[in-house]
């Protein structure tokens, strides 16, 4: 009976040691996976914030362009008190091309010129 109990004790100890060794081998991989997931999540969050910032900036540019184009069309007084016809036609074309260059996605359209006259 003593030999049987001693054998069971040895077997239980060996099983426990084997489990601990397996756990020690797998633990770094498990931690690596958790770190990788955390980094991926943070990267997605940063990308999302950047997209929102770009969209917000593009909307502000569109508003500004529409405001300037409106004053160029109306020929009325501008905020600086300049008289009628203060925006010359070439500048007005450039301003409108800037508005067209910034698309709804917030990115500039291919071939669009942000400086000078629009591409033909």
Describe the structure.
The protein has 120 residues and is an all-alpha fold. The protein has one domain (2-101). The chain has two helices and no strands. It is rod-shaped, with a radius of gyration of 34 Å. The termini are far apart.
Low-confidence stretches: 111-120
Instruction: Report the order of strands and helices.
Output: HH
Secondary-structure content class? mainly alpha
End-to-end separation in angstroms reads 99 Å
Strand content: under 5%
- Quaternary state of the chains: single chain
Count of helical segments? 2
Radius of gyration: 34 Å
Query: How many DSSP-defined strands?
Result: 0
How much helix, percentage-wise, in residues? over 70%
Q: Rough shape?
A: rod-shaped
Mean pLDDT: 75
Q: Structurally, how many domains make up the residues?
A: 1
Largest sheet: none
Keywords: Coiled coil
Region (Disordered): 69-88
Coiled coil: 36-63
